[in-house]
Amino acid sequence: ILMGLASKLHTEYKKSGIIVEQALSFIRTVYSFVGEKRTLDNYSAALDDLVKLRVKQGQAKGLAIGSNGVSFAIWSFLS
C-alpha cells in the first residue's frame, strides 16, 4: 500500500513541478496573456491532489505503526 502511494505521490509532484517549470519558463507569455490566475488555479489543483494523497499516506503509516504497537502490547500481556 505504501509503495503504491509513494509512486502516486511522485507522479503528483512531477505534475505540479511541470506546471511551475512551464510558468517560469514562459513568464513573459503568461504575463502578457494575463494567465496568472489560470496558472495559479492549475497549480492549486495539482497541490490539492497531492494533499489528498499525503493524508492517505499518513493514515496508512499511522495504521502500520499503531498495529505494531498493539502487537507489542499484546505480547507484553502474554509474557
Automatic annotation (TrEMBL):
Entry keyword annotation includes Repeat: yes
Checking InterPro entries in the record gives: ABC1_TM_dom, ABC1_TM_sf
PROSITE patterns, per database record: ABC_TM1F
Protein name stated in the entry: ABC transmembrane type-1 domain-containing protein
SUPFAM superfamilies registered for this protein in UniProt: ABC transporter transmembrane region
Alphabetized UniProt keyword annotations: Glycoprotein, Membrane, Repeat, Transmembrane, Transmembrane helix, Transport
Q: What Gene3D superfamilies does this protein map onto? A: ABC transporter type 1, transmembrane domain
* Species name: Taxus chinensis
Q: Listed GO molecular functions?
A: ABC-type transporter activity; ATP binding
Example GO CC term: the record gives: membrane
Q: Which family does it belong to?
A: Belongs to the ABC transporter superfamily. ABCB family. Multidrug resistance exporter (TC 3.A.1.201) subfamily.
Q: Where is the ABC transmembrane type-1 domain?
A: 1-79
